[in-house]
């Protein structure tokens, strides 16, 4: 199914979400701040995005699908840098004040206007191919562990740092993150174990490319390559595995705007997992759901580590249990 152009709220957000849901975890400013003057937090994050411009320009320059990529990559760098510098002069320019969602969206907008659709495509394809070649070995190592609890612990150790929770969920929605080892060697073996236990698993992937995040079409292709002739994942039936287009086009996500497809499929889920720093830490860390939820990701920005009172490359595993009353 293709995602609808009309976006809807994620149905498992705690109601009323309008009054208490804010996608961005870190407040860049407060109501008392001068609307015409950037806050120290805004400046810090603008500088972070400024520092990333050269690497994005380099990726764009090597995009063989775009004519005159070298010239257009330079135009991207100039335009996006100008936007970021404008925010330092006037936080309300370009639809501001800025937050992580707006800064990501403007970057993608400039790239797409210049014809750059997926500047990380080559590296994603390479990483996916490597990870697919290792998938069977990873699954066999896990399957060799006879004790069910220890097998699950081994599966989730890299993702959940040994924090075991009740895996008796009937339906789980997982917002996936990166291509390569992340999705193929991390999430998919875990999803396979859930399928083996009778859980229906919905993997929600981006509609459009954004940095190295796996997209809906790419995930469909990956699953197709991993399935055998019996449509199984290493002996496990996949009839309860659903791949959904989240409707998202950024490395972060605002859960008041997801595809109608995902909203329909996820309406009865009893576990939501938001994986990756963008979806589970920089956004939605404090989101409240009507079911159990887990936010998981590695802290890759010093600004995020400082906000959380932790260290760079710390892992965040935040499990919220909804108690039935």
Automatic annotation (TrEMBL):
One of its GO terms (molecular function) is metal ion binding. Its cofactor is Mn(2+); Ni(2+). Residues 171-316 form the Damage-control phosphatase ARMT1-like metal-binding domain. Keywords: Hydrolase, Manganese, Metal-binding, Nickel. GO terms for cellular component: cytosol; nucleus. GO terms for biological process: coenzyme A biosynthetic process. InterPro entries: ARMT-1-like_metal-bd_sf, ARMT1-like_metal-bd, At2g17340, At2g17340_3_helix_bundle, Type_II_PanK. This is Damage-control phosphatase ARMT1-like metal-binding domain-containing protein.
